Amino acid sequence: MALNLSQKQEVVAELADVASSAHSLVVSEYAGLTVGQLTDMRKKARSEGVYLKVAKNTLVSRAVQGTDYQCVADALTGPLVYAFSKEDPGAAGRLIKEFVKGNDKLKPKLVSIGGQMYPASHVDVLASLPTREQALGMLVNVLAQPATMLARVLAEPASQVARVVARVGEQKEAA
């Protein structure tokens, strides 16, 4: 169905809003997927905080102007689905990687993060990024490790004194 000018402007505004706040973008070719498969992918995307959109490439090119994703504007050709990670940088990569396992018709085309465009092979790299909770857990572990080591170092002299006193007491009892 063809869009009129005001509908196109709404789509561009919506995409520009999402692109301005998204953490990453995965663009994939979806030719050959059924409506049911796309619907399943949309449901999963909503639950994972990924904005998934099928739109005309010219509208997406206009929408990403002035954002970190401006670098992909020239590479948008063919029937494409756009997955923007809204909450977690790796969410779109995980979604596409998981969906590709069961659907060989979906083919990642490019990845964009931090104002840089990468080839489709970087979907695996993006998918391997830790979630926010995992990253916070790693940070807590790194911050707690020096404190744990300090506590061990400070407690060691006291435990050595206790062992020496115990040995002396054992020797006196034996004698």
Automatic annotation (TrEMBL):
Q: Name one GO molecular function term.
A: structural constituent of ribosome
**Which keywords fit this entry according to its UniProt record?**
Ribonucleoprotein, Ribosomal protein, RNA-binding, rRNA-binding
The organism's superkingdom is given as: Bacteria
Would you tell me the Gene Ontology cellular component terms? large ribosomal subunit
Q: Which BP terms from GO are recorded?
A: translation
- Supply the Pfam families for this chain: Ribosomal_L10 (PF00466)
Q: What does this protein do?
A: Forms part of the ribosomal stalk, playing a central role in the interaction of the ribosome with GTP-bound translation factors.
Q: How does it assemble?
A: Part of the ribosomal stalk of the 50S ribosomal subunit. The N-terminus interacts with L11 and the large rRNA to form the base of the stalk. The C-terminus forms an elongated spine to which L12 dimers bind in a sequential fashion forming a multimeric L10(L12)X complex.
**UniProt similarity note:** Belongs to the universal ribosomal protein uL10 family.
Give the protein name, as stated in the record.
Large ribosomal subunit protein uL10
Q: Which organism is it from?
A: Coralloluteibacterium stylophorae
